[in-house]
Every structure is written in structure tokens, then in C-alpha cells.
Amino acid sequence: MPPELLLLVLINQLTGSTAITIFGSSCSTAFVEEPHAFCVFPSQGPEGSISQCQHTGHGPDAWWCPTTRKYCTDAAYKWCPDTRTTYAGSDPGRECHFPFWYKGVEYRHCLRLDARGSFLWCSTTAGNYSGLWTRCRELPDLMPCRFGQPTAQINWSNSDDISQQCVQRGVGDASGGSSWFCRTSLGQERRCPDTEATEAGNDPGRRC
């Protein structure tokens, strides 16, 4: 059960009520968890339309979604699925799809734009942004390299500018990790992805 509604349920149990009234709408508190159902957006909630996963306010991964078009009436929900790199949004459980186009611009990285400017997000579909999106986890090694932005030159082992391509620092680690580094859209360093046949460049992790 979404924890932010737990208090309302306890109150209703004490009073014998099976519904709550918010902004003039009577909503069921007979919550039903449907773990194998799909998230359904938009759905009519107690405070209006629900169009993305909702956070409970308890823990970073406590996101839930309605599994019915009439959440206020049916009170059916599930916990939003996530991935190693993404969570929540309107298409939870999906990875980012790069590149994608948003307002006529091609992106190969997560964004902080418009109504979602307070967090990183990405499109989960190819081509022009279709309205389906998910939040990006803000972990350097889980975010793509970003090139094309000027950065302050730092003490790398060669003169290449890290804003334009992967740059080499030292040697690879004992586990065989890459010695090439890039920066993400957050300005964080990460190792450039590679394949068994290719490494570095300005499109790392891709084959010829």
C-alpha cells in the first residue's frame, strides 16, 4: 500500500469508512496491490490525473503507479519497475533509448529540461519524443559520455580535450578496465565504454 495513504486507511478503519473524500471526490481506500499488472497512465486519482509514477516519500526507490484508469474508484496499484540505470517516469522499467529527438534537437544523454528540469530524464522510444520517458539514475558509470561541451582543461596524460573525445589517463586496471575517460552531462568522470575490438574516440562502446 502506498505509505502516504496509510494514515487515511487507519483513520477509516477506526471510523468504519471505506472511502475518503478529497476535493469533493469520494475515493476508495480498499487498496489492491497488483504486482503482475501494467502501470496505467493517465489514471484518475484523488487529486486529479496521474500521468507518471508517484513517490511515497519513504526511500529513494518507493515509487508506485495505478493499474487502472480509475484509481480513485478501484484503488489498484503496483510498485513501479526499474532498471539498473532508470526508474519511475511514465514508462517505468525501460532503459533510455539513445539517440532521441526532443523539440527538434538530437540527444545522446539524459536531460534536465522544461517541467522535468529538477531531475535527469530520457526518452524510452526511438526517433521523435513520443511522451514516454523515465528518470535516469545519477551514477557516472551508468550515464553515457557527453561530448561537445567546453570544459576546463585538466592534467590529462595527453593534450586531448575531454569535452570532444575520450582521453587516456594512466593504464588500464588489473581487471582489464579501460584507461580512457570521458565526462557525463553532470560533469562527472567515468571510464569510456569499449568493445573487444574498439575503444575511445567520440562514440565509445560502438563497433566499426
Give a description of the structure:
InterPro entries: FN_type2_dom, FN_type2_sf, Kringle-like. Pfam families: fn2. Residues 1-19 form the signal peptide. This is Fibronectin type-II domain-containing protein. Residues 34-82, 91-138 form the Fibronectin type-II domain. The chain contains two helices and 17 strands. A hairpin with a 2-residue loop joins strand 10 (100-102) and strand 11. By secondary structure, the protein is mainly beta. The model is unreliable at 3-24 and 151-159 (pLDDT under 50). The protein is elongated. 7% of the residues lie in helices and 25% in strands. It folds into three domains: 3-79, no CATH class; 86-138, Seminal Fluid Protein  PDC-109 (Domain B); 140-208, no CATH class. The strands form six sheets. It has a four-stranded mixed beta sheet with strand order 3-8-7-6, with no helix packed on it. Strands 9-14-12 form a three-stranded antiparallel beta sheet, with no helix packed on it. The protein has a three-stranded mixed beta sheet with strand order 11-10-13, with no helix packed on it.
What is the topology, as strand order, of the major beta sheet? 3-8-7-6
Which blocks of ≥5 consecutive residues have pLDDT under 50? 3-24, 151-159
State the separation between the terminal residues, measured CA to CA: 49 Å
Overall strand count: 17
Helix content: under 10%
Instruction: Tell me the number of helical segments per DSSP (H or I, 4 or more residues long).
Output: 2
Number of domains: 3
Strand residue percentage: 25-35%
What integer is the average pLDDT? 78
Based on CA atoms alone, the radius of gyration comes out at 22 Å
| Principal-axes shape call | elongated
Could you describe the largest sheet, including whether it forms a barrel? 4 strands, mixed
Structural class: mainly beta
Order of helices and strands: HEEEEEEEHEEEEEEEEEE
Organism: Macrostomum lignano
Keywords: Disulfide bond, Repeat, Signal
Protein name: Fibronectin type-II domain-containing protein
Disulfide bonds: 39-65, 53-80, 96-122
